[in-house]
Amino acid sequence: MTICHNTSVSILRQLKQLYYRLPLTPAMRHRLGLFKRRLVGAPGKAPGIYQSGVPGVAPGIAQDAAPGNPHSIQSDFSIGPFAEVPADIGHTPRVSSDSQVKLATDLIPETVAVFYGVIDWHFRHQRPQQLALSLARRGMAVFYISVNFVDDASPGFRIEELDPTLKIYQIFLHVKGSHSVYQDTPSKEIWIQQKIGQRMLWEYFRIRDAIHIVQHPYWTNLAASAAASKLVYDCMDFHAGFANTSQAHHEGELALIRLADLTVVSSDYLYDMAKKAGAKALALIRNATEYHHFNRAFTPTRKAGKRVIGYYGAIAEWFDIDLVRAVALAFPDAELRLIGADTVNAQQQLARVRNIQFLGEWPYEKLPEQLASFDVCLIPFKLIELTLATNPVKVYEYLSAGKPVVAVDLPELKGMDELIYRCTDTPSYVDGVREALAEDSVAMQRARMAFAEQQTWEHRASALVNALADGRHEPLVSVVIVTYNNQALTERCLASLADPEKHGEYGLPLEVIVIDNSSGDGSAQMLSQWVSQASLPGSPLRHRRLLLNAENRGFGPAVNQGLALAKGEYLVILNNDTIVTAGWARGLIRHLQRNAELGMVGPVTNNIGNESMIPLPRGSVDLTCFMARRYNLDHGMEAYPLRIAAFFCVMLPREVYESIGGLDEQFVPGFFEDDDYCLRLGQAGYRIACAEDVFVYHELSASFDQLALAKRAAIFERNKALFEAKWGPWIPHQYRPNLPRLN
Q1: What was the pLDDT predicted at 7?
Q2: Residue 726 per-residue DSSP state
Q3: Is 264 helix (H, G, I), strand (E, B) or coil?
Q4: Cα–Cα distance, 224 to 220 (Å, whole number)
């Protein structure tokens, strides 16, 4: 059976390689790809299905080739050309034992990249594919979410392996009915379906954390819905300039720029646009070339015969037909060769110009064959807002072959005046072509190629990785923890905040401030050692602060001490009997940034006395966190309104704290200080919410459990009386209506 399986996989890969060698246009590949996906079959019957004991959980990214590799996490799974992840069995399936999630909770330790595409992978080989491939060649696992969907009413996705030597896959999400990322915005039903499909992807490949690189505004909410992801907007074009961009998508782009942790732009024009739109962090990463691919078109000596003036690329609304006509008429003995999909009927408009040839669209692999025949290369664009924002890829590709380039006066080409002919009007453009045709300079050829060799996609991928790692624009989060005994729980909490393996490469920088209320169990000694320790490489914990109180001042006064020391842009009050999970801080911040009315936000949890508790199975911490992660991914970007937040974990922006002030210190040693603070927030016009996509594990009242029952009841009644004297009758906390609980 193994031999048959391996043979079939080998045959499929050979057929796939043959498919890519065929001289097909990208448009034809796109149509064949859609047809091939229809032939794959019903969900669950495609090659490479993995059946797991836990629904929606599969063994992960393809294993390394070496047998016995200790890091190999996939021993019986092959994706093949296409694989189908079938519909999920319920949104919160029952899990009966910890052993069933042992494999699932063993997340891969590397950050993955997820591209939310602007085109299908096989449509036209451009910046999206180039950056994705460059990251994959660096060893990163890359998932490319296609603009094409599988018409299926059930959540799920289909996988296409894009390269057998790299960890790079195209993902086709299930979406019910006909749906276009260019014209439609997802309905609530479709968004929920996509989120569950995305969660299945995360579980299928055991993703711990991700870089979500959005290349079209349609994907904003889906990409932002996973808390354990750094959100990047790759703004490569002025989308509002395209005829097929809806107003909703234009507004969505502005919202994406404000929400993204990093906005990458390809031109100075887009940089200014994104800056004005409120981008938090900006990186200018221009387009580039696959140098060795296009350098094959270098022809050191001029060929005999008719001169060829050439262009390849889209012949669309920005293509200046009149300018091309003028060039053709000025050089009747030359051949104008236009390569690309004609979507504006240019061929018919230029039908009477006999020296123009339309060759249609050519596959990316064969473009150097045509480029080699060009004596002069054209960039004949109209000067409209769309092109003024463009950093043209083709100029880098043309220069890779040392070819003379005649271009219109695009701002992004001004730094290339020593290498190209940049022209301001039609007469100067024709003169530029004439001068380029007469050019015969080996030195110019070498200068162009030397420039292009330093403008590769590998250079751009390195710039992207550097921009991702630059945390200077990331907000500092100050975490205030009050301790009173419970040393073991405190150590566990602090470890969860500092663990680089838990938070991945891009966790937000943390300042942790511990206020100890005169513990008598060795906590003070442990904390004194903790505050002087250095964090592990990659840890989000940047600063440690410790204040040891000589007496137990109570929860509220100790929290106020910590808040007064905090330097962060966002402030967190966190109990010491908690465990934070990947993406917790970034997820909470996203809610505050999306909704200016929110003054405070907290996570869902497994154990608390109000609506923040969600139904989770009883069992180990790993089991609880696994099922909570599933819940979070299914409910990404959702918030549950709260009247009162429990202060086991809450976050508020610094400006809110400075407006409201600290906790009321009359409620000592505890109880009702959180109710009081939340009512003060409401009185000031702020709202409070529970982030459905963030989970923090909670033991519940570990400090108060140590108090005698009678003493605890006395404290409760005393502080209740103080609260009611200030606010009127106290409304007891409640659970969510009809709250089920999984066993």
Answers
A1: 54
A2: H
A3: strand
A4: 6
**pLDDT over 80 (residue 94):** no
**Any idea what the Cα angle at residue 494 is, between residues 734 and 593, rounded to 5°?**
60
Phi, psi of 219 (to 5 degrees): -85, 5
Strand partners, 573: 480, 650
Strand (E) or helix (H) holding 577: none
CB 507 within 8 A of CB 537: no
Any idea what DSSP says for residue 365? Answer: G
Residue 66 has what DSSP assignment?
S
- Of 335, 317, 319, 310, which is closest to residue 380 (Cα–Cα)? 319
What's the length of the chain? 743
Provide DSSP, 459-488: HHHHHHHHHHH-GGGSPPEEEEEEE-S-HH
732: burial class by Cβ within 10 Å (0-12, 13-18, 19+)? exposed
Stretch (H or E) spanning 374 = none
C-alpha–C-alpha distance, residues 90 and 742, integer Å: 13
Give Cα separations from 201 to 139, 171, 509 (angstroms): 19, 9, 27
Structure tokens at 607: 């154990």
Which helix (H) or strand (E) element contains residue 96?
none
Q: Are 157 and 185 in contact (CB under 8 A)?
A: no
State the burial class of residue 163 (Cβ atoms within 10 Å of its Cβ: 0-12, 13-18, 19+): middle
Confidence (pTM) = 0.86
d(CA 156, CA 56): 9
Radius of gyration of the chain (CA): 30
- H helices within 331-414, ranges in order? 346-349, 367-373, 385-388, 393-400
Asked if 355 and 433 touch (Cβ cutoff 8 Å), the reply is no
pLDDT higher than 50, residue 95: no
Cα separation, 734 vs 118, in Å, equals 45
Confidence of residue 50 (pLDDT cuts 50, 70, 90): very low
H or E, element range at 450: helix 442-453
Distance CA 614, CA 599 (A): 22
CA dihedral 260, 264, 270, 275 (to 10 degrees): 50
Task: Give the angle subtended at the CA of 514 by the CAs of 509 and 515, to the nearest 5°.
Answer: 150
Give Cα separations from 278 to 79, 260, 385, 713 (angstroms).
41, 10, 20, 51
Name, in order, each residue with C-beta under 8 angstroms of 66's C-beta and a sequence gap of 6 or more.
72
Q: Which pairing describes strands 356-360 and 510-516: parallel, antiparallel, or unpaired? A: unpaired
Say whether the peptide bond before residue 669 is cis (omega within 30 degrees of 0): yes
Residue 441: other Cβ atoms inside 10 A: 11
How would DSSP label each residue in 142-200?
A: EEEE-S--EE-SSS-EEEEE--TTSSEEEEEEEESS---TTT----HHHHHHHHHHHHH
Contact at 8 Å (CB) between 198 and 222? yes
Cβ distance 95 to 617 under 8 Å?
Answer: yes
226-243: b or e for each residue (b if 16 or more CB lie within 10 Å)?
A: bbbbbbbbbbbbbbbbbe
Q: Of 518, 541, 514, 540, give the one whose Cα is nearest residue 527.
A: 514
Assess contact for 141 and 113: CB atoms under 8 A: yes
Of residues 107, 197, 155, the one with CA closest to residue 625: 107
What separation in angstroms does the CA of 562 have from each of 478, 511, 550, 559? 9, 11, 15, 5
**441-498 tens-digit pLDDT:** 999 999 999 999 999 999 999 999 999 999 899 999 999 999 999 999 999 999 999 9
Structure tokens at 73: 């996490």
Residue 65 has pLDDT above 50, yes or no: no
Structure tokens at 566: 């905090």
Nearest to 490 by CA among 530, 460, 433, 458: 530
SS3 313: coil
Q: For residues 45 and 39, give the distance between their C-alpha atoms in angstroms, rounded to a whole number.
A: 11
Q: Which of 382, 383, 385, 379 is nearest to 399 (CA)?
A: 379
